[in-house]
Design brief:
11 strands, 7-stranded mixed β-sheet, mainly beta, globular, 50% strand
Length: 120
């Protein structure tokens, strides 16, 4: 399973970004795809997960009012829509596949990450 993230960048507080995670044709039809983030000096934090076969989603409660995870199976892509961004959302965002919920240590496949920087 190869994962390629894109869509990161710099944005002012209150703005929006949509991250994309493209996965390859070898990805199983029923797999958990998740987004994590890691800010400098902090532990990796689970953001959202989607079960690709059923489309079931879960977003960390502290983020669910601003972040949404979705998928486009025809494009084999998972998205993370982030609205009303704040400076404390600044982090490297990673896509991961084939793990359990938002337990980052359970995920074996990771993308290279995409940087999100939110300024005041």
């Amino acid at each position: 399973v190869q994962l390629v993230e894109s869509g990161g960048g710099s944005v002012q507080a209150g703005g929006s970004l949509r991250l994309s995670c493209a996965f390859d044709a070898y990805t199983p039809a029923n797999v958990r795809m998740a987004w994590f983030r890691q800010a400098p000096g902090k532990e990796r934090e689970g953001v959202a997960v989607i079960y690709t076969q059923r489309g079931t989603t879960f977003v960390t409660p502290s983020l669910k009012d601003r972040f949404t995870i979705s998928q486009d199976n025809t494009k084999k892509t998972v998205y993370l829509q982030m609205n009303f961004l704040r400076p404390d959302d600044t982090a490297m965002y990673y896509c991961a596949a084939n793990g359990t919920g938002l337990l980052h240590r359970s995920y074996k496949r990771w993308g290279q990450g995409t940087q999100v920087t939110v300024s005041t």
